[in-house]
Specification:
By secondary structure, the protein is α/β, with parallel strands linked by helices. The chain contains twelve helices and 15 strands. The chain folds into two domains: 207 residues, 3-Layer(aba) Sandwich (Rossmann fold), CATH 3.40.50; 127 residues, Response regulator (Rossmann fold). The strands form four sheets. A six-stranded mixed sheet has the order 2-3-1-4-5-6, sandwiched between helices. A four-stranded parallel sheet has the order 8-7-9-10, with helices on both faces. It is globular, with a radius of gyration of 23 Å.
């Protein structure tokens, strides 16, 4: 055998090392994230981004990296981000986006790219009706239907007979109006006036005056984030004395700060995590909700918790359950792994998250039931749990 000199030995060793490193690099799991950390939905996207930063960087012995992009609360940018994550970054899964319009805009792209995605937005339309594109889309927030039922039931208990509605002039506002109107009517509550406004509007005086002219017993605000503070502030300013309800997209400290005392004694349905410590010990989500709220506020400060942070955290919990299952049949970075990950998410059963117990199926890509929402009242700038 020909003698191999020292330099050649080093070269061969280096080549062997590189060859061994290639499978390891390919085995790294890559999660894409597109969220609204700037723009009108920033008060929702920033806590989501903070929660993403808390997610594990290793799952089932595999390194996990996160590619986080800002979509600036814009549907066009969301589509651009999604294409970049799939085509350039070659991600195995996506978390996002923050809002309903953005999440709906992603559907065609994730369907084409066959990439499992977990939305952080509320509308049923993101995952229903099931079709080829939606077979790749999942979500963690409670649906509009669940929250609309909670509002209608509370209004009925409190003797409300008529209601008005003011919401965003986009997919979120329209979807919530449909749901809350349907369940209000089932409770014999008449919808007497509806108004719309843009997320970027600076005034809703005209809309509020029309609502008040109809004299409803209660007014529901179908909006999210800090722009949702505009209607209740205007209603209080104009002397409205009826009950005011919010959509669950306002459960964050920035909304409380912007709305201030004008939102005192108003109501909303939200995830249990926002009142974790106030939940009865019998709640199946209390432990997970309390653990996350403590971790989040230890890292980001007192009263920093937001419902949308928990939605991002729950997306991480679902992936932590699904990834080990998918790894049994395929390697990260492949179409087979993305398909296996989608199948594993669909098979999620009995997993306690910060918002509920998740039991998914091929036709239910949320998996939560009515235990995943509670009614709260805003009192003195705090969330006050309202037992049923």
């Amino acid at each position: 055998m020909q003698h191999i000199n020292g330099s050649k030995k080093h070269l061969i060793a280096a080549l062997i090392g590189m060859a061994c490193a290639i499978p390891a690099a390919q085995a790294q799991i890559k999660i894409g994230v597109t969220i609204s950390s700037t723009g009108p939905a920033a008060s929702l996207g920033i806590p989501e981004k903070n929660a993403i930063a808390m997610l594990p960087t290793e799952i089932a012995g595999q390194k996990v990296s996160y590619v986080v992009l800002d979509d600036a609360s814009d549907t066009t940018q969301t589509v651009t981000n999604t294409r970049k994550l799939i085509s350039e970054e070659k991600v195995d899964a996506i978390i996002g986006s923050t809002t309903t319009p953005n999440s709906l805009a992603m559907l065609n792209v994730i369907g084409e790219g066959k990439t499992p995605t977990i939305s952080l937005a509320s509308s049923n339309r993101i995952i229903e009706p099931m079709d080829a594109n939606r077979s790749w889309m999942f979500k963690t927030p409670q649906t509009d239907t669940m929250m609309a039922i909670a509002i209608a039931e509370d209004m009925s208990k409190k003797g409300v007979k008529t209601m008005g509605f003011i919401g965003f002039s986009d997919a979120l506002g329209e979807a919530f109006l449909v749901e809350v109107s349907k369940y209000a009517e089932l409770k014999k509550i008449k919808v007497v006036a509806t108004e719309r406004y843009s997320r970027n509007d600076n005034s809703v005086v005209g809309q509020v005056l029309k609502l008040m002219a109809a004299n409803p017993d209660a007014i529901v605000v179908g909006a999210s984030g800090t722009p949702a503070a505009l209607p209740p502030k205007t209603l209080v300013e104009r002397g409205y004395k009826g009950r005011i309800y919010h959509n669950h997209g306002v459960a964050n400290s920035d909304f409380l700060r912007v709305c201030g005392k004008d939102c005192d004694a108003t109501y909303l349905p939200t995830g249990p995590v926002m009142v974790a410590a106030q939940l009865p010990d019998s709640s199946p989500v209390k432990k997970a909700a309390v653990d996350f709220s403590r971790q989040f506020e230890k890292r980001y400060g007192k009263d920093s918790l937001a419902a949308f942070a928990s939605y991002a955290w729950d997306a991480g919990l679902l992936l932590q359950q699904a990834i080990p299952v998918a790894l049994k049949t395929a390697k990260p970075g492949t179409a087979a792994f993305r398909a296996a990950l989608r199948d594993a998410l669909e098979a999620t059963h009995g997993v306690s998250t910060t918002n509920g117990v998740v039991n998914m199926t091929k036709n239910d890509h949320l998996g939560l039931d009515q235990r995943a929402r509670v009614m709260v009242q805003i009192k003195g700038g705090k969330w006050l749990y309202q037992p049923e």
